[in-house]
Amino acid sequence: MMFRLAKKKWMRSLYWTIVLVFLVSLLTAFIYYFVLIDELEIKPKTIVNSDNLEKQINYRLSGLELGLKQNRDLLKSIRFKLDRVFKDINGNLNKDNEDSDPSDYIRDQSICAKSSPQKEFKPNISMPDVYEELKFDNPDGGVWKQGWDLIVNETLFSKGHKLKVFVVPHSHNDPGWIKTFDRYFREQTKHILDNIVTKLSEDPKLRFIWAETSYLSAWWETVKDPKMKTQMKALVDSGRLEIVTGGWVMNDEANVHYFAMITQMVEGHEWLMDHLGVKPKYGWAIDPFGLSPTMAYILKGMGFEGMVIQRVHYAIKKYLASKQELEFRWRQYWEHKADSDIVCHIEPFYSYDVPHTCGPDPKVCCQFDFKRLPPSKVYLLIPIQSNPFGLSPTMAYILKGMGFEGMVIQRVHYAIKKYLASKQELEFRWRQYWEHKADSDIVCHIEPFYSYDVPHTCGPDPKVCCQFDFKRLPPSKVKCPWKASPHKITDSNVHQRSLLLLDQYRKKSMLYKTKSLLIPLGDDFRFDKLEEWDAQTENYQKLFDYINARPEWNVEIKFSTLGEYFESFKGIHSFPTLSGDFFTYSDRDDHYWSGYYTSKPFFKRFERILESHVRSTEIIFSMASILNPHSLDRLNALMPLFVYARQNLALFQHHDGITGTAKDIVVNDYANRMYRSLENLEKISSQSIMNLLHYENIESNQLKLVDKLPNSFSTSTKSLFIIDDNNNQNWHFVIYNSLGFASYELVCIHLQPMVNNWCIKDNDGVEVEDIQMNRVWSMDKLLTDRVEACFVVHMKALSLAEYSVGICDEKRGVHKKSAVTLYNFGQSFNNLSEDLVSFDETPTEIQLDNENIGLTFSGADGMLRKLSIRDVTTNLRMKFMTYGTRSGKKVQKSGAYIFLPDNENAQDLVYSNCKIRITKGNIVTRFETIIEKPIPIRHQISIIKGKRYIEMENEFFLSQSSFGNKELMIRFYSDIQNDDIFYTDLNGFQMIKRKRYNKIPLQGNIYPMPTTVYIEDTKQRLSVLSGQPLGATSPRSGWVDIFLDRRLLQDDQRGLNQGVVDNRKTKEIFKILLESTSSEPTAPTQPLKPSLEAQIELQKILSPPILMYSTMKSTISEIYFLHNPLPCNIHLLNMRRSSKANTYSLYLHRWGVGCDAKCAANSTVVLSQLFSPFITKSLEPQITRMSLSSLHEKESDLSIDSQLNVEEMHINVYRLRTRGV
């Protein structure tokens, strides 16, 4: 840990600066020493006991040691800076030091060309090649609609080649969708888990798999009988109840960032290890709407051996099935070795429910879903006294006298029934009118409806209830839509039913190369009632026993777990390799699930904000815990708040959470959870920072966030700092950089200055001279109660620095006000002040520039027309556009999941007389376009001094009824000749090449853009970096479309049963880079890697600096935790405190960057050299490389002095432990 008390003053006399600083620092050290001694001697009353004395002495000695080290570092810094000055004079500035910015490693902003390709791994199955080959047609395949007519070849099955059938019972439990998480658990999931324990404990033949740890945790916390916990653990230990995947949820794979992917998996695995002692080995992803190889990489990195997926485009399923390649080794396209391969199994048919898992014919398979059986017993409530025409209290007295506790009656006057029902008083204690005591009371229940028959007892609608009188209608309440109901298995039909089922099993097995067949048995929230358990298990067991007793059929069948299935062919069969992803998903016809990439973007942005705070708080909380062992009790008390935040971030990664495909009430529940989590993280960050910077009275004070969400349904706002003469109060704010690299960043705060002599001071107490003052606006309204002060901060890697704003002792210079130019704002702003000019007419073109960037805008529509960044120029035009949806009464339309446009060509968003506001300053210049109709939009383009990108911010509100059934997007038109090729990212972890196909409709050419999209040719690359996940495509050469929001008035028939109409005012942020591509013939091929600059700027979007403020001043004004910088291509992904005492997980990710970067080819990290000495002294010397969720040890003979090698693209996790306190 290092402290800096001097700032570069290049223009002053070097000699007097060195002398003055040296003398001051020496004096400070002596004062600090004697004050510490004095405090120990003068304040003995504060020492209550020997423990307290020891703690105070340790604390003071620690402070003394810090102060002395501060001065040693200062002298070292002076020598270093003197050397740097002379090197700078000689033109040999050394950039490899702790102050280096990652941009120092960018090689002339150019990206290597695609010539001279490197040797590449060629998989057996390449998804781009599959796309080239497929026609993407949808001929009718017969009973298997999306396949073909399968005919069993009996010769494939023999005594030596028996078909081994593994029937795997499961229940898919969404942690929120139609109901909230809590309601699902209370009404269904709790009963499912109870039943699992009960039934598996009764029958040793039964098996079950479970995926969602969030529900296991809720069950564990609420179950009252300790015996149930013991039984569950015994079932898990025996392998009969298998935990598959084991994440907190079954996460989405399109919108989720890989940090959150890992976080939700770790949260689940840590809970499982702590409570059940289990390490999952197999993945189960049957419901995410498209699959990413990033998830395969993460599972493999967590020690998994196999995985099952379901929602793959029906045409791709058919293609792979035709080649018996539905099982393969999924490999990353950038990986040459088999180390990262994971065996993947695709279920071949339409869905994961019972009718679509036993074989190709759902009409047959549905007959073996025994939940749909007509009930063998009719369980009816038969009311006592249901028929007498009127009821007497005498009967109630007699029943009570006979020892009865309750009674049910029916024939009561309909008006009286209605009256009692309106007051919810149909159940009461019936007392004799002459009785004063409760002894004769009997609980009485009145049936509310017309009669006591079935049509009038299930609910208010007899038309509906009559359908559930199974004496009248033989099919059960869960009907098979193919009009062929299940039959209870009996001795008379078991032979015929066995052959029928076995025919389906054999047909399905023909789609795979092994003789092992996986048959999932379940659906959403199945097995919540014991009757279903009995119906399924008893009937299937009769079938199993009959089939297994016939050796001539060459079949072995049993209830199984997923692990038993994968183990059956482990080491026996070699599968082909496959690289690529499975987006965009289509379940039928041209119904592509590309709408959910953009549904409910307010909450997608909300998630990224929470994710950023979780990551930053993880790291600073870990640092505080490591460096302040005597404050661990206080920090430990915050762990429940932290766990709550982690779990709610994890919960929203659910495939109906971040996707925007849950009911409005469920989404609001997610948002409230995330908001409370942000409040928790604010408290934890405050306590951690105050401990590290040695604030006084930590218990009674708290740092507050400068940028904060006021509630769960609004965009962020800035805190207002009021400065006046009355209280002479200074505001102190800490700037926290959680990234592992240094940078110069723009910081803006809102002030209400009541005086002129105010200033901002840095952590050295030196006044910040370069401040830009801006007016503050809300859309087109000027906010007169505040101004914005913007300045540039040099943030060291992984550091805290305290700045202050308040009244200055000396009269300060004039702050530089920005100049504001308004167009079409009306007369009210005319001649308001010298720095604000308003015009009624807009010029044809408006040009803005700084030292790096030139912009040209159209005055007509207020949108960009041309962009120049250094020596790279392109005609770059932006335009807001819309798509509608298909029309017609019985026509499938767009909904939360699906995008079905009315036309292949987007329509311009028509507006006129847009307002334009230009704020031009010495640091930042902004061009804002304000559109009032048809929807309110604020579109902002910003350029910042010293930066080589432009920032884009779009704020809008799709609330108007006139914007129903429309999708809002922004289109970029450029000169780049990318033809039909473009690139999007997968989960922020890797890039993937996309190709636009004319044989696929528009909606199928849209892909998820969790963070990045770019197009390029031999001269230029245009990259758009996003602070929220959205959908993107390149519909023509040179074009990029990014979908911003959607408002849809109807359901898309995928189970949600509602449209998308809960739009919120949303603010989305982007960065746009224009880079040159080198034409050097010797340049290696790097088309799938973003530039180093793009990687760096993306991390700044996703993990911006955290600003927290207080009226208190800290004891220490700056702290930075890295002794040396990380290699420029290694990202500090996380530093996570474990649930185990004194244990931390360090996550390092080595980016794949293009050859524009001058990073070392073999980047290694030595922790003893990376972290400051105070951190390394607090750590045990031995470290262990772990799997990604820290369940498995990978390398144990490591130390903090070892050279840790992180291979390109890979994530390494190291377990660190602190020394005993």
From TrEMBL:
Q: Which SUPFAM superfamilies match?
A: Families 57/38 glycoside transferase middle domain, Galactose mutarotase-like, Glycoside hydrolase/deacetylase
Q: Which Gene Ontology CC terms are recorded?
A: Golgi membrane
Question: What is a GO molecular function of this protein?
Answer: mannosyl-oligosaccharide 1,3-1,6-alpha-mannosidase activity
* Record's signal peptide: none
Task: Write down the top EC class of this protein.
Answer: hydrolase
Q: Which InterPro entries match?
A: Gal_mutarotase_sf_dom, Glyco_hydro/deAcase_b/a-brl, Glyco_hydro_38_C, Glyco_hydro_38_cen, Glyco_hydro_38_cen_sf, Glyco_hydro_38_N, Glyco_hydro_38_N_sf, Glyco_hydro_57/38_cen_sf
Q: Which UniProt keywords apply?
A: Disulfide bond, Glycosidase, Hydrolase, Membrane, Metal-binding, Transmembrane, Transmembrane helix, Zinc
Which note does the record give on the cofactor? Binds 1 zinc ion per subunit.
Q: Which Pfam families match?
A: Alpha-mann_mid, Glyco_hydro_38C, Glyco_hydro_38N
Q: Does the keyword Disulfide bond apply?
A: yes
The catalytic activity, as recorded, is: N(4)-{beta-D-GlcNAc-(1->2)-alpha-D-Man-(1->3)-[alpha-D-Man-(1->3)-[alpha-D-Man-(1->6)]-alpha-D-Man-(1->6)]-beta-D-Man-(1->4)-beta-D-GlcNAc-(1->4)-beta-D-GlcNAc}-L-asparaginyl-[protein] + 2 H2O = 2 alpha-D-mannopyranose + an N(4)-{beta-D-GlcNAc-(1->2)-alpha-D-Man-(1->3)-[alpha-D-Man-(1->6)]-beta-D-Man-(1->4)-beta-D-GlcNAc-(1->4)-beta-D-GlcNAc}-L-asparaginyl-[protein]
Q: In terms of domain of life, where is this protein from?
A: Eukaryota
Q: Which residue intervals define the domain Glycoside hydrolase family 38 central in the entry? A: 591-674
EC number(s) per UniProt?
3.2.1.-
The transmembrane residues are 12-35
Q: Which cofactor does it need?
A: Zn(2+)
**Can you supply a Gene Ontology BP term from the record?**
mannose metabolic process
Subunit: Homodimer; disulfide-linked.
Q: Family membership, please give it.
A: Belongs to the glycosyl hydrolase 38 family.
Q: What does this protein do?
A: Catalyzes the first committed step in the biosynthesis of complex N-glycans. It controls conversion of high mannose to complex N-glycans; the final hydrolytic step in the N-glycan maturation pathway.
Its recorded name reads: Alpha-mannosidase
- Protein species of origin: Oppiella nova
Lineage runs:
Eukaryota, Metazoa, Ecdysozoa, Arthropoda, Chelicerata
